[in-house]
Design brief:
The complex is a heterodimer. Chain A contains 1 helix and 4 strands. By secondary structure, chain A is mostly beta strands. Chain A has a 4-stranded antiparallel β-sheet. In chain A, a hairpin with an 8-residue loop joins strand 1 and strand 2. Chain A is elongated, with a radius of gyration of 15 Å. By secondary structure, chain B is of the alpha+beta class. Chain B contains 8 helices and 10 strands. In chain B, the strands form 2 sheets. Chain B has a 6-stranded antiparallel β-sheet. Classes of the chains: A mainly beta, B alpha+beta. Strand 2 (21-28) of chain A pairs antiparallel with strand 6 of chain B.
Chain lengths: 88, 309
Amino acid sequence: MSARQQVLLLWLASSSLEGHVLGWSFFDGAAGAGPQLTADPPYGTGLDALRDGWRLLQMSPLNPPVPGRERETSFLKHEFVFERVVEI
Amino acid sequence: MTTTNLLSTDQMASFVARGFLRLEAVVPDDVNRQANEELPGLFRAWLDEFRGASPKQQPADTHATENESPLPRSGTPLDTAYAPDSPFGRMVRVPVISGAIASLVGANPVVDHHFVHIKTAGDMHAQGLHCDAIVDEGLAFDIQLFWFPHDVAPREGGTRFVPGSHLRRVNMDDVSRYQHLAGEEYFSGPAGTVVIFHQGLWHAGAPNHGSRDRVMGKLRLNPTVPQVRLWDTSDLAERNRADDHMFARMEPGLVAAELRRFERWYEPAVHRLETVQRARLWRYLTGDQQFDVDWYLTRTERRAALAPR
């Protein structure tokens, strides 16, 4: 048995983990040998992912808008990175 | 090029809000058949060149392939870029297509480039999400025609795209980590459908679970004139009001109603900024610098005039 990392990215509707999921990505270090996501989207909120055992690694910082560019839109703002380690 | 069959105000507003316009089964069957026979040759010749299987041969002013009309050089006027009997030449002369082109980038645009994309049967690669070229500045925009000359069933390699992504400032495939976004679409539809994209729309080649190759001809056009009131504006004046921001009571039928459109992958706070971006683009397209959606631009412009920074 050896450990592999699975990474789940969720983009939420707000800066709170209670925000609902707008987008998601899954990167599987176990190459399919471990548990997989079973729903589409996999969770309703970021908090749901925590309660299912995912560990939060990082969340987007709350940066003030750049002066003069306050109204520009770009990447999704509220990115939450989770991991779980699976044995294969 | 002809200027009949211009787009309506509703179609233009939808393009500004969502970044694409779908023209369903508008290319005649015989043109689609010709495209299906001739366009794959361009892709295969490019693959051979890429792999070094055949020497690159480029005449002085064109790049001819075996089965397709010569590749026009960037900047060639559209009306002379393609032989009238070639697949692309016939497609851009379909009145519904030429009317849409004229409405969006004027009657005399130039060709940026074209290419033929093939997703072979069973090709399960999911291309990373991206927008073409590089991050762009300014309000003027190019269009890209995605021409599907045969029926495309769901999951048979129809292009993935994200409605409402076109005004988000990103560079090329910096958005490739987004594997799933709520409300994104995968093209499927009947032969002869052309989907016109704003240059900034996020998209990606999708896996082809089907049993036949998926062919798509893509053509990018640059405007040569300001893109101001080029469509059928006969109903614009009465629908272009900026003052219907009566709290929680919006007036249906106005352009602003479409420009408020929400996409499921939007953060609610960013949605408000998206309406500002759309209002700025609509100001460019109409020449009406007083236009607004929900008073966001107007109130700040008026305050700024009182106390300049």
